[in-house]
Design goal:
heterodimer; A: 517 residues; alpha+beta; D-Maltodextrin-Binding Protein, domain 2; Dipeptide-binding Protein, domain 3; 2 domains; 4-stranded antiparallel β-sheet; 16 helices; B: mainly alpha; MetI-like fold; Peptide/nickel transport system permease protein (chain B); membrane (chain B)
Chain lengths: 517, 328
């Protein structure tokens, strides 16, 4: 080879460089900027169910299955096939081929086993709770494995679609939990962690060569944006300001007052009703609310439409069941959640609570006072509920306490009312909250309800599960065991420059299809 | 007018002040330890439950994690252990995140120090300017300004600055604040109450000094007001203002909580706010000790500055008690 040709050959890579750079348009190199309201403190989806954490980690991990946000159906992702045994106690999966973690190791059945074996050892709330009764994962070969439980477990397939069940590289499955909180867990997702600065930002960058998205994805290959930057902006005004000034392209959790200005003029609202148990008045049956007539008076005494019209805004809806309408196996029970103050008052009279001079009802000289325990700060909607109940003659004290105190008083049962909602696109949330075999924070007596809840958990076909869920919901409403209030919605404001931003079935951000213009 | 102070007086003075500072730090550590143990609530239960939307945690899991973190030991043992470790600069690990507190502080301190020192410098500069201006002829109208500024809440100032300089005229970023442009608005927000305080105290002190006979004498000899204020009055009036600057430093930590939140900056203020609300004992403990050391250090520096500024102070602590300095 003549010297000049050698020199040319040596230069060739250099000559190619500008060509490569010209290929990728500026938009493809763009980073999606997202303002989140809070730093979750821990990013590991196995250790935290916090929404902000899952919005980040959802892009770092892939799951065995995905859930169709429209139908609630469980569809393939990392597992190309999955079947439940006839007794509902074991689940067999076949992994797709060619998937690797971002550390280069292959995603195989052993990695799934390592992930689940570690998950079950974390404290049993959040994602680890969905693995209760886990007997182990049996690896047949690198792609085939079976997960077994000690009892039928109808909710398990849905659980495998959540970020908490994201499959982790065996090395990080065994890593220190605190380090995993800082983001040092390795998944197979379309993005990898670039850095996490506490209280400031999490920056993700695209995983090159990613080619195994969910069967629901529109994009078969690597993410279209170069990366994503989540900035933590706790102040609502600063969040909307950052969006309107173009410093971020997506702002989460937009307050009612700001929604109108982001509905047009270069922005749109991305709204999704949160699946799961709707925000309720959770009732402590151990105190004065042990009287069913009183609980029924609360159920009928709340004007849900007024909550939406006056405080929450058009993106929210009055509750029509214990479950939100985006939860699989939901059925409309609006007939049981009507507003009937006259009947409510009659029930209170019947229970012996007579109106006093100040309008507050009393029985045997004791005023009808309910303590509503709230992790501070108090949302405005609580004050409206308080006024509505005041009109019936019930004195509600809004007791806002610091979160630490809230947890303690909640566990000790030092409340009449509180609000515990659960986000999950599966009706098993009913069992989490209402089964007397669980924490039973509401001091419910054990009853047939437990049987219905166990039946929905063990049902092997959809019809049987629907029947059991319906029975459980009917029982809960018949006995006024809770007072569903409204369907929660997540409201994100998004710049028109962002295309393809999705919310998955659990209302978490999906960035894989996003394009920026 | 030079005096020859007792050569042992200065080291003794410094040693005494250092001992005082050590007591302040120890007291802060102990009080925080006690308060955190006395308030209701279980930080471990809160961590486990809070991470999952206040979902209940099985008691055996809470007990296991408590034991892992050493919270099941007798309080006295926990206290001694924490104290011995703290002396070595080890504050343990955060309950919420599991990270070593020292590492969290090391990551956050530079941001907060940059913000705090910039704000302090701005406070002193702006406060001094305002105080001087208010004491010059026709400056009387400015005297109302510090009172107004001191009463403005920081979060409001921050939001107004964002509205004006980041949104209406997009000159500066309102988020994250990396680099110099990101520092301007937060530092100004944090500096405003401090500047007002310096202006108030220095302004009043300056006004008093200017009424002293020697100033009148100076003016009678034909010196202009500007010259009297700058050459003579300012130095004599500085002592109360320096004291205030010491106190300001303590206030900066509190101010940082608000400013860092409004401007979405990382820093010690954010850490402390989250740690207090989640009863993250090791973190609160670490921040308090670091803040106490910083505060004691600044006050020590202020105390050592007095003798430099005012010769009279050098003699006051002399055992003889004799006032030997001669007034100018």
């Amino acid at each position: 080879m003549p010297a000049s040709a050698r020199a040319l050959a040596a230069l060739a890579p250099l000559l190619l460089l500008p060509a490569c750079a010209a290929d990728s348009s500026p938009a493809a190199e763009a980073v999606l900027q997202i303002a989140l309201p809070a730093d979750p403190g821990c990013l590991d989806p196995q250790q935290t169910g916090q929404l902000a954490a899952l919005d980040v980690s959802r892009s770092l991990v892939d799951t065995l299955t995905d859930q169709d946000p429209e139908t609630g159906e469980i569809v393939p992702w990392l597992a190309q096939e999955f079947t439940a045994s006839a007794d509902g106690r074991s689940f067999t999966f076949v992994l797709r081929e060619g998937v690797t973690f971002s550390d280069g190791t292959p995603l195989d059945a052993a990695a799934v086993k390592a992930t689940f074996d570690r998950l079950i050892k974390f404290p049993a709330n959040g994602a680890p709770a969905y693995l209760r009764g886990y007997q182990g994962t049996k690896v047949a070969d690198s792609r085939n494995f079976t997960v077994a439980f000690d009892a039928p477990n109808a909710q398990f397939l849905q659980a495998t679609s959540g970020a908490g069940f994201g499959i982790l590289s065996p090395k990080t499955a065994a890593a220190d939990p605190a380090e995993r909180c800082r983001g040092s867990f390795v998944g197979s997702g379309p993005f990898v962690l670039d850095h996490y600065t506490a209280n400031q930002e999490v920056v993700l960058k695209r995983r090159e060569g990613y080619a195994w998205p969910s069967s629901l994805a529109a994009n078969d290959g690597a993410a279209k944006v170069a990366g994503a930057r989540f900035v933590f902006v706790p102040e609502a005004g600063a969040r909307t300001g950052a969006l309107s000034s173009g410093q971020v392209a997506v702002a989460q959790n937009i307050q009612e007052a700001d929604r109108a200005r982001f509905q047009s003029g270069g922005f749109q609202l991305l709204t999704k009703a949160v699946p799961g148990l709707v925000p309720p008045l959770s009732l402590n049956h151990a105190g004065v609310l042990g009287d069913r007539r009183l609980r029924e008076a609360l159920l009928l005494g709340v004007d849900r439409q007024a909550l939406v019209d006056t405080v929450l805004g058009a993106q929210f809806r009055p509750a029509t069941s214990v479950l939100s309408s985006t939860t699989p196996f939901y059925a409309d029970r609006a007939d049981r959640l009507r507003h009937d103050p006259d009947r409510a008052k009659a029930l209170l009279d019947e229970a012996g609570w007579k109106p006093g001079a100040d309008g507050i009802r009393a029985k045997d000289g004791a005023p009808l006072k309910l303590v509503w325990l709230i992790p501070a700060p108090t949302p405005p909607v609580n004050e409206l509920v308080q006024q509505q109940l005041r009109a019936l003659g019930i004195d509600v004290e809004l007791r806002a306490v610091p979160p630490a105190k809230y947890v303690e008083q909640q566990q000790k049962g030092e409340f009449d009312l509180t609000a515990v909602a659960v986000t999950r696109a599966d009706p098993d949330v009913l069992r989490n909250i209402f089964s007397t075999k669980g924490a039973n924070l509401w001091h419910l007596p054990s009853s047939e309800l437990d049987t219905f809840l166990d039946q929905q958990a063990s049902a092997t076909d959809g019809k049987a599960r629907q029947e059991a869920v319906d029975k459980a919901v009917t029982w809960i409403l018949d006995h006024a065991d809770t007072v569903p209030l409204y369907e929660n919605s997540l409201v994100h404001a998004v710049s028109d420059k962002v295309k393809g931003l999705r919310l998955d079935a659990s209302a978490r951000l999906g960035l894989h299809d996003v394009e920026l213009s | 007018m030079s005096s020859s102070p007792d050569r042992r007086a200065v080291p003794r003075y410094v040693a005494g002040r250092l001992a005082q500072a050590a007591v302040v730090v120890w007291a802060a550590f102990t009080v925080v330890f006690a308060i955190q143990r006395l308030v209701p609530g279980d930080p471990v239960e809160l961590m486990l439950s809070g991470r999952n939307g206040f979902e209940a945690v099985p008691p055996e899991d809470v007990a296991r994690v408590r034991a892992e973190l050493g919270f099941d030991r007798p309080v006295a043992v926990q206290y001694l252990d924490a104290a011995v470790s703290a002396v070595r600069g080890d504050f343990g690990a955060s309950i919420q995140t599991g990270r070593p507190v020292a590492a969290m502080l090391a990551e956050a301190l530079p941001a907060t120090l940059t913000l705090g020192l910039t704000a302090l410098a701005l406070s002193v500069a702006a406060g001094t300017l305002l105080a001087v201006a208010a004491n010059l002829p026709h400056g009387g109208a400015l005297r109302a300004l510090p009172g107004l500024a001191v009463s403005l809440p920081s979060f409001l100032v921050g939001l107004v600055l964002i509205q004006l300089f980041a949104l209406r005229w997009p000159l500066l970023p309102s988020l994250g604040g990396s680099g110099l442009p990101g520092l301007v608005l937060p530092a100004c927000t944090l500096a405003i109450p401090g500047a007002a305080l310096v202006a108030q105290v220095l302004g009043r002190s300056l006004a008093e000094t200017l009424r002293e006979p020697y100033c009148e004498t100076l003016r009678a000899t034909g010196a202009s007001t500007v010259r009297v204020v700058l050459r003579h009055g300012l130095r004599n009036a500085a002592i109360p203002a320096v004291t205030v600057a010491g106190v300001l430093t303590g206030g900066l930590i509190g101010g940082a909580v608000v400013v860092e939140t409004v401007f979405s900056r990382q820093g010690v203020g954010r850490i402390v706010q989250f740690a207090v609300s989640t009863q993250d004992l090791p973190v609160v403990q670490g921040v308090v000790v670091v803040a106490a050391v910083g505060f004691a250090g600044v006050n020590l520096a202020v105390d050592l500055l007095y003798p430099v500024l005012d010769p009279r102070v050098r003699t006051v602590r002399r055992p003889s008690g004799a006032l030997r300095a001669v007034k100018a």
